[in-house]
Amino acid sequence: MSIGFDAAMESVRLLRDGIRAKNPPPDEGGPSAEDNIVMLSLVRGTRPYLERIVHQINGSYENGWYDASAVMVRRLVETLIIEVYEANGRAADIKDGNGDFLFLADLISTILADQQFNLSRAAKKALPDLKDVGDKSAHSRFYTAHRKDIEKLAPLLRNVVQELLALAKLK
After folding, report:
1. Which pLDDT value is given to residue 155?
2. N or C: which end of the chain has fewer CB within 10 A?
3. Helix, strand, coil percentages in the chain from 3-state DSSP, rounded to 5
4. In this predicted structure, what is the pLDDT of residue 162?
């Protein structure tokens, strides 16, 4: 019985690979099927690159690529903080002496201390946690994210994304 199953699975793999060879993913990436981690409706109509980042967060989660999802969460947070400062004419506040944007740790420290934006308690608590999972996935040789690591980020992300989008005047 398992020989028949193995042969069927091999046929399915060959069919999938043949379809993929003739129909590769779009150059800009494909849409995610679900909104498991970040609801697309939060960023729809803002910036196309924010929508693509959200599709990548959700799509990598759907496929079990949890480190990729965590790194994209980190990228979304970083991008949204930059959007906040740019929308408020204060991009210089988050740049170093060479005119480059600060690293995420410094971006978070800056926005947390910034009285103009006055983030909620939930967002203030969530930002370091979101960064931490993304950092471990991006930089730790021994850490690999698991499904539950990403799932616990979803409610934190909703609050942070909504607040930062509002502060960036995008929603």
Report:
1. 94
2. N
3. 65, 0, 30
4. 97
Q: Is residue 25 part of a domain?
A: no
Residue 61's domain comprises 30-167
Residue 48 located in a structural domain: yes
DSSP 91: G
Paired strand residues for 95: 101
Q: Give me the number of domains the chain comprises.
A: 1
Q: b/e for 34-66, b at 16 or more Cβ within 10 A?
A: eebbbbbebbeebeeebbbbbbbbbbbbeeebb
Q: What is the pTM of this model?
A: 0.87
Token pair for 13: 């793999």
Distance CA 59, CA 49 (A): 15
CATH number at residue 127: 1.20.120.330
Task: Evaluate whether 15 touches 134 at the Cβ level (below 8 Å).
Answer: no
Q: Which two tokens stand for residue 69?
A: 């999802």
| pLDDT, position 2 | 60
Contact in structure between 53 and 75 (CB atoms under 8 Å): yes
- The answer on pLDDT for 8 being more than 60 is yes
pLDDT surpassing 80 at residue 134: yes
Residue 18 within a domain: no
Q: Assess contact for 69 and 57: CB atoms under 8 A.
A: yes
pLDDT at 23: 81
